[in-house]
Amino acid sequence: MKTLLSALPLLALATPVLAEEPSAEPIIVTAQRREQAAQDVGIALSVVDAGVLAERGITNVNGIADATPSLEIEPAFGGGAPQFRLRGVGFQDYATNNAPTVGLYVNEVAQPVPAMTQGLLFDLARVEVLRGPQGTLYGRNTTGGAVNIVTNRPADRLGAGALLEAGRFGALRGEAFVNAPLADGVALRVAAATQQGGAYQRDRNTGRELGNPDRLGTRALLAVRPAGSSLDALIDVHWSRDRSEAVGLYLLNPLSTRAGAGPVIPADRDRFATGWGVSPRLAADVGLSAGAKPGVDNESWGANARIAYDLGGVTLTSLTAYDRLDRRQFGDWDASASVEADTFFGSEVEVWSQELRLSGSSGALDWTAGAYWSHQQLDERYFSDFIDVYGTYARVTYAQQVESAALFGQAEYRFAPQWRAIAGLRYEEETRDLNGFGSAFGGAQALPPTDVSTRMRPLTGKLALEWTPADDLLLYASASRGVKSGGFTTYNTGNRSGIEPFAPETLYAYEIGIKSQPASWAQVNAAAFWYDYRDQQVLSAVYGANGPVGRFTNADRSRIAGAELELVLTPLPGLSIAPFAGFKHGEYREFTDLDVPASRAAGQAVYVDRAGETIPFPRWSAGGSAAWDLPLGRLVLTPSTTVTWRSRYPSWLGATYDIPAYFVANAELALAPADGSWRVALWGRNIFDREYDLTRNFFTSADIAQPARPASYGVRVSATY
């Protein structure tokens, strides 16, 4: 903590990332399933609004990590399944079937499969990032936290708007919306977005480019709230398509192809060099063309209805949802034309959910009670082509069903003018069935179709105390217990033990925090936390015939502690400065693990006692923004800058795969009329052209990394009516 406090003056001077834009009006959030000013909520949360998303060029949820403290979202092997980590609580999995530690919600609807979270972000009102276990107010239970994405709601007036952005490497992005009142209290909002171009990588041998996005999404919202009626309904229908090329990987070290019998491909000096290839067998098996580039061919769609009815002092809310993802993803994880580690995911995911809530407020008491049910169906094909390194081709197929039911509730009681007590409880029953898991190598059945199951029935909850000694000061303390589902490791294995379930993890979280406005021009929020982990789910490995193979296990005991600080400062008219910082540190207390580097070197399994070792994640995150509105007659000129810094990200795989610390700066110069009806902005991102990686890993014989985007610049034009 002393180190954190000593760094704060430097952060303020650097005016590093905007997590909450200062405003004369309070920022309203729905973090506790009702509208509240963010400063009145005794939870560590960050709010990222639509303006920040546009300035940073954030088009999917992964970019949110650069705008909030203590959050990392790592693209596994360059894409597909994102790996969320909040306050050090994370789950590293490139498969499709397991639950994340951080819940993602769109208009209150959970997206429980990480691969479902990679769609375009557009027409948003805000994104709320809640840190710490969530479950007493949410349909799903998470240990790390929640990311709430809130779209713009239909309004009762005619309107329209559009945004067009063009940038380096031929990048194009466009958005548009139309809002129309249809009748008294009935309004429709239709929005669409697309993202095209922008590839910044090339094949090291042929010069062919790789990495062009090709995304399209649309959403229609129908709001029904008749004047004088107790009904408030919102119908959401959405569809998206993604045919993007993958972001390529580059070689950290030389690659000796064909297990040393083929040519050696030198390590890439150019971080934006890459390579790929596909074997005739894999191409024929999954329907790829002979010269197919790594990438996706995904389609998703869904609908949900949120219907609330005021019963007179009590509100009944029903949330019914259905979402589907059809995913086809080809990845070349050896970054070469040699077929050392080529993969294909064919996923069909369906999620049905139903939530019912009763909520009310009577004097000093606010309460919510609810029931939640969901059913997930996943049909998966996971193929791995190792023909040039192991002389084999692996096919894994399975189905998974997840059935979940929960009762939850939370009450807040103001027992004195300045004091409020909060208590919440959740009981859940969840069953995960892995059906027909089978694997074949080289056409020979290695593991016949096998069924395994796991079940959990946890009781979780929260106790908190809030004190408001002054109007602009909130102090809070909380203790909570969160649980994350167990699951299965669905990688290549010929042994039944490889798919035996790993246990649920339990997190006991303790937090103290402050939200304050010590002056009219300053807002100061801070929190400190201490986590006691039981059965933490850790990506480790088992030693198989071809060396270490990834598998999840449970670390008996571990701990994480840290703190965050977020400021919003407006020292001069029109000038806003919003720095933030986060620090976290964790260590294993009881954990015996496979030593992957030592096992690879020895050619046999080598185990290590990791008690006392540091849990690998970045300790520091910091950032901020500065923006100054300068009047020019009837126009406003706004120069702004945003900065992000993260400390070294150590890897459990060894020092080769550590991601060094990086610092990224963006800048923008915007011109708009005072009423904001249009806006023109010149922007630059990564303006100092810093070279850094988003992920590092190995698969079979290749040590690979995914480079972040180099310096880019462009123009954005938007208008509303």
How would you describe this structure to a colleague?
This protein has 721 residues and is mainly β. It has a single domain, classed as Maltoporin, Chain A, CATH 2.40.170. The strands form 8 sheets. The protein has a 22-stranded antiparallel beta barrel. The protein has a 5-stranded mixed β-sheet with strand order 3-9-10-7-8. A hairpin with a 2-residue loop joins β40 (630-632) and β41 (635-646). The two termini are 49 Å apart.
By secondary-structure content and strand pairing, the structural class works out as: mainly beta
The percent range for strand residues is: over 45%
User: Low-confidence parts lasting 5 or more residues at pLDDT below 50?
Assistant: 1-24
Binned, the helix content reads under 10%
In short:
The protein has 721 residues and is mostly beta strands. It has four helices and 46 strands.
Which terms would index this structure?
721 residues, mainly beta, Maltoporin, Chain A, 22-stranded antiparallel barrel, 5-stranded mixed beta sheet, 4 helices
Walk me through the topology:
Layout: H1 2-14, E1 28-29, E2 36-37, E3 45-49, H2 50-56, E4 71-75, E5 82-86, E6 89-90, E7 102-106, E8 109-110, E9 124-131, E10 145-151, E11 159-167, E12 171-183, E13 186-196, E14 201-203, E15 209-210, E16 214-224, E17 231-242, E18 250-251, E19 255-256, E20 264-265, E21 273-274, H3 280-286, E22 295-296, E23 298-310, E24 314-332, E25 342-362, E26 365-386, E27 392-416, E28 419-441, E29 444-456, E30 459-470, E31 473-484, E32 505-519, E33 522-544, E34 547-569, E35 575-577, E36 580-590, E37 592-594, H4 596-602, E38 607-609, E39 620-628, E40 630-632, E41 635-646, E42 662-673, E43 678-685, E44 693-699, E45 702-707, E46 712-720
Parallel strand pairs: 7-10, 14-21
Antiparallel strand pairs: 1-2, 3-9, 4-5, 5-6, 7-8, 9-10, 11-12, 11-46, 12-13, 13-16, 14-15, 16-17, 17-23, 18-45, 19-20, 22-24, 23-24, 24-25, 25-26, 26-27, 27-28, 28-29, 28-30, 30-31, 31-32, 32-33, 33-34, 34-36, 35-39, 36-39, 37-38, 39-41, 40-41, 41-42, 42-43, 43-46, 44-45
